[in-house]
Amino acid sequence: MINNYVVYVLLAITITAIPGPAVILTIRNSLKYGYKASIANILGNFIAMVLLATLSAVGLGALIISSSSLFVILKVFGCLYLIYLGIKSWKTPCIQKRNHQKEQQINNQKFTVLFKEGLGVGISNPKAIAFFTALFPQFVDPARTFIPQFLTLILTIEVISFIILTSYAISASLASPFLSKKRAMAIFNKLTGISFIGFGIALLCEDS
């Protein structure tokens, strides 16, 4: 059982460390508002993953996957939301300098918005439901009580995801002086926008 858990931890680290929409969103917000503000979208992503994992655990994940029309609707929604974030990032005005006072003000004003963005990015990918539905049974012992095992698995991957996304946020914040010039930030905004749009199109084009 311990060996299986080690495999699960390594798999969770690999999956969460690979740059995806949540990572791109975290880096963008950290550069724009500071790493403390990006915690808001990380928490939003955290809640989204808990909801999707719970759906999968109670069997709704399998139901959604088995319904091709519902799954397609969710994919279209996810695609449109990621493209929306891409366009928003593309049009984001450049911020050349930040100071602590302004950053704190932005954190207070933008927390809800950033939280909803993180929640939206997490919920918008129905592939996460398929992932949890396929992954969890591989590490659950049917001879043992399910709920403690489920809580262990979801808390493990969520803690790992939180640590990795926070690391991305801090790293991006440390790199912000190198991106403080208007041209550099403009290029970053365009690349971020293209990344979100690319993730959205890729989501739509993936086989169900």
Automatic annotation (TrEMBL):
Gene name of the record: rhtB
Membrane-spanning residues: 6-27, 39-64, 70-87, 150-175, 187-205
Similarity annotation: Belongs to the Rht family.
Domain of life according to the entry: Bacteria
Organism, as annotated: Pseudodesulfovibrio nedwellii
Keywords noted in UniProt: Cell membrane, Cell projection, Cilium, Flagellum, Membrane, Transmembrane, Transmembrane helix
Protein name: Flagellar biosynthesis protein FlgM
Keyword Magnesium annotated: no
Subcellular location(s) per record: Cell membrane
